[in-house]
Input
Amino acid sequence: MPATDTKKEIARPSHIGRAIRGLGALSAAALVVMMGVTFAGVVMRYAFNAPILGVNEIVQLMSLSMVMLGLPYATQTEAHVRIDILDNRIGKYGRFLGDILARLIGGYVLCVLEMRAWRRFADAIEYGDSTNMLRLPLWPFYGLILLGVGLVIFILVLQIVDIVRRGPADSHD
Output
């Protein structure tokens, strides 16, 4: 039942793993759209002297989409940048506590972000907030923040459970 595709990926029920990989694919699609819009904007501006209206808004919204949709995948596969200068000096118990503490602090910070995003999401719906030039509604993008951050919090909780269940390990993968 657990799906583990890579050494770094922590075992999860298959439907959660598929959902997170699907969001990662959507993140990649957002990157492709962002690159395409940027390319088209540059060509139109400099080759034809006809800039595309709202290119910056589209790029900003695609950047947000890319990060928020890719964050759960990066968290699940532990692909974040990590510095382990002290790993050898603090020993397996220090690493064990450090791994738990890092996820608790990250989870707390993300919970604060999630609560603020909920307020902004509700305000954007209530007041009809939109972008300046293209008048695109902002609530779906606040929804992406809620989805991405909520999944990361869930993954961090599962990772803490996994770490505690495994106990202090001799090696740090």
